[in-house]
Design goal:
alpha+beta; four-stranded antiparallel β-sheet
Length: 108
């Protein structure tokens, strides 16, 4: 996968960098997680501060355009990003898993 950042704009009001770029790939379109990891290493930000907004595939080409934002800190991300059903469910599952692990450690 080859990642190219076409446009980078700093939004000082929301404490983030807004990115637009292009990905060239072989096979299937890269997942959000793949793009997330690649982008965070390219711009040298923590993985938790990068949010992929959109991946748009070009018909019959092995290319896609993406839109993403990278926040400067976690507080700015939590303030600006909406908490969707999907994210709430993911957070709740992680909380249940950690509680189950802590209970199993107490029993042992």
């Amino acid at each position: 996968m080859k990642l190219t950042i076409i446009e980078q704009h700093e939004n000082q009001l929301l404490h983030r960098i807004e990115l637009q770029g292009k990905i060239e790939f072989d096979g299937a379109t890269p997942s959000n997680n793949d793009l997330h990891a690649e982008l965070s290493s390219k711009i040298k930000k923590e993985a938790g501060l990068v949010v992929i907004k959109q991946i748009k595939n070009f018909f019959s080409l092995h290319e896609a355009a993406f839109t993403a934002v990278a926040y400067s800190n976690l507080a700015a991300k939590q303030k600006a990003e909406p908490m969707t059903k999907h994210l709430r469910k993911k957070e709740e599952e992680a909380r249940k898993k950690s509680q189950a692990e802590s209970e199993s450690k107490k029993e042992a």
